[in-house]
Amino acid sequence: MKATVHVTLKNGVLDPQGKAIEHALGALGFAGVDQVRQGKFLELELTETDREKARAQVTDMCEKLLANTVIENYTVEIEG
Amino acid sequence: MKATVHVTLKNGVLDPQGKAIEHALGALGFAGVDQVRQGKFLELELTETDREKARAQVTDMCEKLLANTVIENYTVEIEG
Q1: Residue ranges per domain, chain A?
Q2: Which of A4, A12, A45, B37 has the smallest set of CB atoms within 10 Å of its CB?
Q3: C-alpha–C-alpha distance, residues B56 and B62, integer Å
Q4: Complex ipTM
């Protein structure tokens, strides 16, 4: 079973990496970019076959390791 | 108009960050994790209002800056 996790910075948290990309795009001549936010994207291959158990397991992983819940939000999707 | 970009390592390209997460999950007692791959996730706010033009612009950004196409794949989604 495959799980995908998106970890994004919470609104209001400064995103220096996103700002750097925004400026680099401007320097390359791309106009019309208002904001860039960068996040992390994780693909996990799990042996768990039960959808709900897999979701609970991955949520637990996010809380304990994958996301810093003080400044980051996460979403979990289970596929297949 | 909002665009989301996923940048992932191509298959066969070593992902040390993913490996580190995999090991850390194992050390925390999470069993049954076969593989972890980490990628980047970007959210862009564009002033462009035409869907196809926005997609072309973001694809161009990926080719020029956002992804290293030698080792990375990217997908572009346009929303709203």
Answers
A1: 2-79
A2: A12
A3: 10
A4: 0.90
Decide: residue B41, CB within 10 A, 0-12 exposed, 13-18 middle, 19+ buried: buried
**B80: pLDDT strictly greater than 80:** no
Q: Which of A38, A66, A69, A70 is nearest to B4 (CA)?
A: A38
Q: How many helices (H) and strands (E) does chain A have?
A: 2, 3
Amino acid identity of B44? L
Tokens of B7: 């940048």
Confirm or reject contact between A40 and chain B (CB < 8 A): yes
Question: Is the CB of A55 inside 8 Å of chain B's CB atoms?
Answer: no
Q: Which of B35, B40, B65 sits opposite A25 (nearest CB)?
A: B65
Cβ of B36 and A43 within 8 Å?
yes
Q: Mark A17-56 as b/e (b = at least 16 C-beta within 10 Å).
A: ebeebbeebeeeebebbeebbbbbbbbbebebeeeeebbe
Instruction: Determine the residue type at A16.
Output: P
Homologous superfamily of A2-79: Phosphoribosylformylglycinamidine synthase subunit PurS (3.30.1280.10)
